Amino acid sequence: MWIKVVLIAVIFVSTAVCQTGHCFEPGPVVPGGCHNLQRLANKHCPPFDEPEFLLDTSITRALLPFYELAPAIASDGTNSLVVWMDSRKSFYSYWPDIFGARLSPSGTLLDPQSFEILSIARHWLYYPAVAFDGTNYLVVWEDGRHAGWADIYGARVTCDGVVLDSAGFPICTAPDSQKAPAVAFDGTNYLVVWADPRFGISDIYGARVTPEGVVLDPAGIPISTAPNWQGTPSIAFDGRNYFVVWADFRNGLPQIYGTRVTPEGAVLDTSGIPISTVPYAQLEPACAFDGKNFLVVWQEYRRSSVNADIYGARVTPEGAVLDTNSIPITTRGGHQINPAVAFDGTNYLVVWADQLSPIYYYYDIYGTRVTRDGLVLDPQGIAISSAADNQKSPAVAFDGTNWVVVWQDERNGSHIYNRSHIYSARVTPEGVVLDPWGVVVSGAAHPQWAPTVSFGGTNFLVAWQDDRSSGGDIYGTLVTEDGVVLDPDGLPITTAPYWQGSPASGYDGKNYLVVWTDCRSGEADIYGARVTPEGVVLDPNGIQISTSPDSVGTPAVAFDGTNYLVVWQVYCSSGVSYIYGARVTPEGVVLDPNGITIATTADYYCGGTAVAFDGTNYLVVWTENGPYSNDIYGARVTPEGVVLDPQGIAIGAPLVEEESPAVAFDGTNYLVVWCSHRARSDDIFGARVTPAGVVLDPGGIAISTDTVDEGFPDVSFDGTNYLVVWQGPGTLQELHGARVTPNGMVFPSVPVVIQEGYQLSPVLAHGHGSQLFLVYISWTGTVAGKVYNTYRIWGKMNPIPGVEEYAAHENLSSMLDATIIKNVLRLSQFQSGCQSKSVLIDAMGREIMVLVPGENDVRGLTPGVYFVRTDKGVASRVVIVR
Question: Considering the entire predicted model, what is its pTM?
Answer without folding.
Answer: 0.84
